[in-house]
Amino acid sequence: MKHDTDKSRSLSNFLAPRYWPTWLGVGLLRASALLPLRFWYRPGAALGLLAYYLLTSRRRVAMVNLRQAFPDYSEAQLEQLCRQSFKSVGISVFEMAAAWFKPHDKLLRLCRIEGQEHLQAAMADNRGALLLTGHFSTLELGALFIGSVAPKYNGVYKPAHNPLFNAVMVHGREKMGNKLIETRDVRSIIRGLKNGHATWFGPDQDFADQDIVFTPFLGGTASTLTATAKLARMTGCAVVPFYPERLENGKGYRLHILPALENFPGDDIEADSARVNKTIEEMVYRLPQQYLWSHKRFKTQSDRSTNIYAGKAK
Questions:
Q1: Considering the chain, what percentage of its residues have pLDDT values greater than 90?
Q2: Domain boundaries, the chain
Q3: In what helix (H) or strand (E) does residue 47 lie, and over which residues does it extend?
Q4: CA–CA distance from 153 to each of 58, 68, 103, 170, 292 (Å)?
Q5: What is the pTM of this model?
Protein backbone atom coordinates (compact mmCIF):
# COMPACT_ATOMS: atom_id res chain seq x y z
CA MET A 1 0.00 0.00 0.00
CA LYS A 2 0.88 3.65 -0.31
CA HIS A 3 -0.20 6.28 2.18
CA ASP A 4 -0.84 9.92 1.36
CA THR A 5 -1.15 11.48 4.80
CA ASP A 6 2.52 12.15 5.60
CA LYS A 7 5.24 11.68 3.01
CA SER A 8 8.00 12.53 5.53
CA ARG A 9 7.22 9.66 7.91
CA SER A 10 10.49 7.73 8.03
CA LEU A 11 11.81 5.45 10.77
CA SER A 12 15.17 7.21 10.55
CA ASN A 13 13.49 10.30 12.07
CA PHE A 14 13.04 8.53 15.41
CA LEU A 15 16.57 7.86 16.62
CA ALA A 16 16.53 10.25 19.61
CA PRO A 17 16.91 8.67 23.08
CA ARG A 18 13.28 9.39 23.97
CA TYR A 19 12.26 6.82 21.37
CA TRP A 20 14.57 4.04 22.62
CA PRO A 21 11.93 2.39 24.87
CA THR A 22 9.56 2.24 21.91
CA TRP A 23 12.33 0.80 19.74
CA LEU A 24 12.84 -1.89 22.36
CA GLY A 25 9.16 -2.79 22.17
CA VAL A 26 9.27 -2.79 18.36
CA GLY A 27 12.31 -5.06 18.48
CA LEU A 28 10.49 -7.53 20.73
CA LEU A 29 7.50 -7.47 18.39
CA ARG A 30 9.71 -8.17 15.41
CA ALA A 31 11.45 -11.01 17.20
CA SER A 32 8.11 -12.56 18.19
CA ALA A 33 7.11 -12.63 14.51
CA LEU A 34 9.77 -15.29 14.00
CA LEU A 35 7.84 -17.70 16.21
CA PRO A 36 5.56 -20.30 14.60
CA LEU A 37 1.81 -20.05 15.14
CA ARG A 38 1.60 -22.57 17.98
CA PHE A 39 3.93 -20.43 20.12
CA TRP A 40 1.72 -17.31 19.98
CA TYR A 41 -1.08 -18.61 22.15
CA ARG A 42 0.30 -19.38 25.60
CA PRO A 43 2.42 -16.23 26.04
CA GLY A 44 -0.31 -14.15 24.39
CA ALA A 45 -3.01 -15.55 26.68
CA ALA A 46 -0.74 -14.98 29.68
CA LEU A 47 -0.15 -11.38 28.60
CA GLY A 48 -3.89 -10.84 28.24
CA LEU A 49 -4.61 -12.38 31.63
CA LEU A 50 -2.00 -10.10 33.19
CA ALA A 51 -3.78 -7.12 31.62
CA TYR A 52 -7.10 -8.44 32.96
CA TYR A 53 -5.81 -8.27 36.53
CA LEU A 54 -3.72 -5.10 36.25
CA LEU A 55 -5.91 -2.86 34.06
CA THR A 56 -8.84 -2.69 36.42
CA SER A 57 -10.51 0.26 34.70
CA ARG A 58 -10.52 -1.52 31.34
CA ARG A 59 -11.77 -4.71 32.98
CA ARG A 60 -14.64 -2.78 34.49
CA VAL A 61 -15.55 -1.23 31.12
CA ALA A 62 -15.59 -4.70 29.56
CA MET A 63 -17.82 -6.05 32.32
CA VAL A 64 -20.27 -3.16 31.94
CA ASN A 65 -20.48 -3.85 28.20
CA LEU A 66 -20.84 -7.59 28.70
CA ARG A 67 -23.61 -7.26 31.33
CA GLN A 68 -25.54 -5.12 28.87
CA ALA A 69 -24.97 -7.47 25.92
CA PHE A 70 -25.66 -10.70 27.85
CA PRO A 71 -28.34 -9.88 30.45
CA ASP A 72 -29.16 -13.56 31.00
CA TYR A 73 -25.58 -14.55 31.88
CA SER A 74 -24.58 -15.16 35.47
CA GLU A 75 -21.75 -13.11 36.96
CA ALA A 76 -19.47 -16.15 36.73
CA GLN A 77 -20.27 -16.56 33.02
CA LEU A 78 -19.63 -12.88 32.37
CA GLU A 79 -16.28 -12.97 34.18
CA GLN A 80 -15.26 -16.05 32.20
CA LEU A 81 -16.12 -14.36 28.92
CA CYS A 82 -14.29 -11.22 30.04
CA ARG A 83 -11.14 -13.23 30.79
CA GLN A 84 -11.40 -14.95 27.41
CA SER A 85 -11.64 -11.62 25.64
CA PHE A 86 -8.58 -10.26 27.46
CA LYS A 87 -6.63 -13.41 26.59
CA SER A 88 -7.66 -12.91 22.99
CA VAL A 89 -6.35 -9.34 23.05
CA GLY A 90 -3.06 -10.63 24.45
CA ILE A 91 -2.74 -13.10 21.59
CA SER A 92 -3.49 -10.29 19.16
CA VAL A 93 -0.19 -8.60 20.10
CA PHE A 94 1.67 -11.51 18.50
CA GLU A 95 -0.72 -11.53 15.55
CA MET A 96 -0.10 -7.83 15.00
CA ALA A 97 3.65 -8.46 14.95
CA ALA A 98 3.17 -11.28 12.47
CA ALA A 99 0.98 -9.15 10.19
CA TRP A 100 3.59 -6.38 10.13
CA PHE A 101 6.81 -8.37 9.99
CA LYS A 102 6.16 -11.95 8.83
CA PRO A 103 6.09 -12.88 5.11
CA HIS A 104 2.47 -12.64 4.04
CA ASP A 105 2.51 -15.82 1.97
CA LYS A 106 3.21 -17.82 5.12
CA LEU A 107 0.32 -16.16 6.97
CA LEU A 108 -2.13 -16.64 4.12
CA ARG A 109 -1.49 -20.38 4.24
CA LEU A 110 -2.87 -20.37 7.80
CA CYS A 111 -6.31 -19.08 6.77
CA ARG A 112 -9.32 -20.77 5.20
CA ILE A 113 -11.56 -18.26 3.44
CA GLU A 114 -15.31 -18.84 3.28
CA GLY A 115 -17.66 -16.76 1.13
CA GLN A 116 -15.11 -15.35 -1.29
CA GLU A 117 -17.77 -15.56 -3.99
CA HIS A 118 -19.80 -12.89 -2.16
CA LEU A 119 -16.99 -10.37 -2.48
CA GLN A 120 -16.33 -11.30 -6.10
CA ALA A 121 -20.01 -10.84 -6.97
CA ALA A 122 -20.20 -7.51 -5.12
CA MET A 123 -17.12 -6.14 -6.91
CA ALA A 124 -18.09 -7.27 -10.39
CA ASP A 125 -17.85 -4.62 -13.13
CA ASN A 126 -15.24 -2.67 -11.13
CA ARG A 127 -17.65 -1.79 -8.34
CA GLY A 128 -16.15 -0.65 -5.05
CA ALA A 129 -16.95 -2.30 -1.72
CA LEU A 130 -16.98 -1.17 1.89
CA LEU A 131 -15.68 -4.15 3.88
CA LEU A 132 -17.81 -3.87 7.00
CA THR A 133 -16.46 -5.45 10.17
CA GLY A 134 -16.09 -4.95 13.90
CA HIS A 135 -13.11 -4.45 16.16
CA PHE A 136 -12.21 -8.06 16.78
CA SER A 137 -8.88 -8.87 18.38
CA THR A 138 -7.85 -10.54 15.10
CA LEU A 139 -8.18 -7.19 13.34
CA GLU A 140 -4.64 -7.01 11.90
CA LEU A 141 -4.62 -10.48 10.37
CA GLY A 142 -8.23 -10.04 9.28
CA ALA A 143 -7.27 -6.96 7.29
CA LEU A 144 -4.48 -8.92 5.62
CA PHE A 145 -6.71 -11.90 4.83
CA ILE A 146 -9.58 -9.89 3.35
CA GLY A 147 -7.15 -7.81 1.29
CA SER A 148 -5.71 -10.96 -0.24
CA VAL A 149 -9.01 -11.78 -2.00
CA ALA A 150 -10.01 -8.25 -3.06
CA PRO A 151 -9.03 -7.33 -6.64
CA LYS A 152 -8.14 -3.81 -5.45
CA TYR A 153 -7.82 -2.97 -1.78
CA ASN A 154 -7.36 0.14 0.36
CA GLY A 155 -6.76 0.11 4.10
CA VAL A 156 -7.92 2.75 6.56
CA TYR A 157 -6.12 3.64 9.78
CA LYS A 158 -6.38 5.95 12.76
CA PRO A 159 -3.01 7.50 13.72
CA ALA A 160 -1.47 6.29 16.97
CA HIS A 161 -0.48 8.80 19.66
CA ASN A 162 3.13 7.57 19.79
CA PRO A 163 4.74 8.92 16.57
CA LEU A 164 7.30 6.11 16.29
CA PHE A 165 4.72 3.40 16.86
CA ASN A 166 2.50 5.13 14.32
CA ALA A 167 5.31 5.08 11.74
CA VAL A 168 5.95 1.37 12.37
CA MET A 169 2.22 0.67 12.09
CA VAL A 170 1.99 2.53 8.78
CA HIS A 171 5.03 0.69 7.40
CA GLY A 172 3.49 -2.61 8.44
CA ARG A 173 0.00 -1.97 7.10
CA GLU A 174 0.93 -0.28 3.84
CA LYS A 175 2.22 -3.64 2.54
CA MET A 176 -1.26 -5.19 2.66
CA GLY A 177 -2.82 -3.64 -0.46
CA ASN A 178 -2.84 -0.64 -2.76
CA LYS A 179 -3.19 2.39 -0.50
CA LEU A 180 -3.36 3.16 3.22
CA ILE A 181 -5.68 6.07 4.03
CA GLU A 182 -6.09 7.98 7.27
CA THR A 183 -9.66 7.88 8.58
CA ARG A 184 -10.06 11.67 8.27
CA ASP A 185 -9.11 11.63 4.57
CA VAL A 186 -12.68 11.10 3.37
CA ARG A 187 -11.93 12.32 -0.16
CA SER A 188 -9.38 9.55 -0.70
CA ILE A 189 -11.80 6.95 0.68
CA ILE A 190 -14.52 8.15 -1.70
CA ARG A 191 -12.11 8.28 -4.64
CA GLY A 192 -10.99 4.72 -3.99
CA LEU A 193 -14.54 3.39 -3.76
CA LYS A 194 -15.52 5.15 -6.99
CA ASN A 195 -12.47 3.61 -8.67
CA GLY A 196 -13.53 0.10 -7.70
CA HIS A 197 -11.43 -0.49 -4.59
CA ALA A 198 -12.49 -2.50 -1.58
CA THR A 199 -11.97 -0.52 1.63
CA TRP A 200 -11.71 -1.86 5.19
CA PHE A 201 -14.29 -0.16 7.44
CA GLY A 202 -14.90 -0.70 11.16
CA PRO A 203 -17.49 1.83 12.41
CA ASP A 204 -18.23 0.10 15.74
CA GLN A 205 -16.51 2.64 17.99
CA ASP A 206 -17.60 5.83 19.72
CA PHE A 207 -17.18 8.78 17.34
CA ALA A 208 -18.84 11.58 19.29
CA ASP A 209 -17.39 14.36 17.12
CA GLN A 210 -18.73 13.03 13.80
CA ASP A 211 -22.11 12.74 12.11
CA ILE A 212 -23.97 10.21 14.27
CA VAL A 213 -27.40 8.92 15.18
CA PHE A 214 -28.35 6.79 18.18
CA THR A 215 -29.40 3.23 17.42
CA PRO A 216 -29.54 -0.14 19.24
CA PHE A 217 -26.32 -2.13 19.60
CA LEU A 218 -25.34 -5.03 21.86
CA GLY A 219 -28.12 -4.51 24.37
CA GLY A 220 -27.82 -0.73 24.61
CA THR A 221 -28.05 2.43 22.53
CA ALA A 222 -24.88 3.50 20.76
CA SER A 223 -23.75 6.57 18.86
CA THR A 224 -23.63 5.27 15.31
CA LEU A 225 -21.82 6.71 12.30
CA THR A 226 -24.02 7.59 9.36
CA ALA A 227 -20.95 7.36 7.10
CA THR A 228 -21.59 3.77 5.98
CA ALA A 229 -24.86 4.61 4.27
CA LYS A 230 -23.61 7.98 3.01
CA LEU A 231 -20.50 6.48 1.42
CA ALA A 232 -22.59 3.77 -0.23
CA ARG A 233 -25.00 6.37 -1.59
CA MET A 234 -22.27 8.71 -2.87
CA THR A 235 -20.14 6.04 -4.53
CA GLY A 236 -22.57 3.27 -5.43
CA CYS A 237 -20.34 0.77 -3.62
CA ALA A 238 -21.50 -2.50 -2.10
CA VAL A 239 -21.33 -3.07 1.65
CA VAL A 240 -19.84 -6.51 2.34
CA PRO A 241 -19.69 -7.73 5.96
CA PHE A 242 -16.82 -9.97 7.08
CA TYR A 243 -15.13 -11.14 10.24
CA PRO A 244 -11.99 -13.17 11.00
CA GLU A 245 -11.99 -16.09 13.42
CA ARG A 246 -9.03 -17.49 15.35
CA LEU A 247 -9.40 -21.27 15.54
CA GLU A 248 -8.62 -23.15 18.74
CA ASN A 249 -5.43 -25.04 19.53
CA GLY A 250 -3.29 -23.25 16.96
CA LYS A 251 -5.25 -24.60 13.99
CA GLY A 252 -5.09 -21.32 12.11
CA TYR A 253 -7.83 -18.92 11.05
CA ARG A 254 -11.09 -18.77 9.16
CA LEU A 255 -12.26 -15.66 7.33
CA HIS A 256 -16.02 -15.35 7.02
CA ILE A 257 -17.19 -13.18 4.11
CA LEU A 258 -20.96 -12.62 4.13
CA PRO A 259 -23.30 -11.57 1.31
CA ALA A 260 -23.43 -7.86 0.53
CA LEU A 261 -26.26 -5.94 2.18
CA GLU A 262 -29.27 -5.91 -0.12
CA ASN A 263 -31.30 -2.78 -0.87
CA PHE A 264 -28.75 -0.65 0.95
CA PRO A 265 -28.81 2.24 1.50
CA GLY A 266 -32.49 3.02 1.83
CA ASP A 267 -34.32 6.31 2.31
CA ASP A 268 -33.93 6.54 6.10
CA ILE A 269 -30.42 7.27 7.39
CA GLU A 270 -31.32 6.23 10.93
CA ALA A 271 -32.74 2.90 9.76
CA ASP A 272 -29.67 2.34 7.56
CA SER A 273 -27.34 3.06 10.49
CA ALA A 274 -29.32 0.73 12.73
CA ARG A 275 -28.99 -1.98 10.09
CA VAL A 276 -25.21 -1.53 10.05
CA ASN A 277 -25.13 -1.90 13.83
CA LYS A 278 -27.33 -4.99 13.63
CA THR A 279 -25.02 -6.56 11.06
CA ILE A 280 -21.94 -6.01 13.23
CA GLU A 281 -23.85 -7.16 16.31
CA GLU A 282 -24.72 -10.49 14.67
CA MET A 283 -21.03 -11.08 13.93
CA VAL A 284 -20.06 -10.22 17.50
CA TYR A 285 -22.60 -12.62 18.98
CA ARG A 286 -21.16 -15.39 16.81
CA LEU A 287 -17.68 -14.82 18.24
CA PRO A 288 -17.95 -12.80 21.48
CA GLN A 289 -14.74 -14.08 23.07
CA GLN A 290 -12.67 -12.45 20.30
CA TYR A 291 -14.36 -9.03 20.38
CA LEU A 292 -12.84 -5.90 21.95
CA TRP A 293 -15.19 -5.38 24.89
CA SER A 294 -12.91 -2.99 26.78
CA HIS A 295 -13.71 -0.02 24.51
CA LYS A 296 -16.14 2.58 25.92
CA ARG A 297 -18.55 2.01 23.08
CA PHE A 298 -21.54 3.56 24.89
CA LYS A 299 -19.79 6.59 26.36
CA THR A 300 -21.70 9.04 24.15
CA GLN A 301 -25.46 9.01 24.73
CA SER A 302 -28.25 11.24 23.46
CA ASP A 303 -28.69 12.30 27.09
CA ARG A 304 -25.22 13.71 27.65
CA SER A 305 -25.63 13.45 31.42
CA THR A 306 -25.80 9.64 31.19
CA ASN A 307 -22.56 7.70 31.71
CA ILE A 308 -22.90 3.96 32.09
CA TYR A 309 -19.18 3.72 32.91
CA ALA A 310 -19.33 6.00 35.98
CA GLY A 311 -18.16 4.38 39.17
CA LYS A 312 -15.07 2.82 40.66
CA ALA A 313 -13.24 -0.14 39.19
CA LYS A 314 -13.88 -3.52 40.75
A1: 82
A2: 15-290
A3: helix 41-54
A4: 33, 35, 18, 15, 24
A5: 0.92
